[in-house]
Amino acid sequence: MKSESLDVKKFQDQQLKDELASLQKKLFDLRSQTVTEKVKDTSQFAKTRKNIARLNTELRTRQHASKK
Fold it and tell me: How far apart are CA 37 and CA 31, in angstroms?
């Protein structure tokens, strides 16, 4: 799956949580690569952070909707 084409509204809750964990691990790996070796594509940092924000926003929206 391309990271820039996430359609989070189609995901189920567990899929959102799994994808969020995966992206957080990817961001951690990118950060550790900056220490150990040169990162080839620095735009991956911003793309990964934006996708994490999209997932968090969708999870939070669903939490608020379920409370009503």
Answer: 10
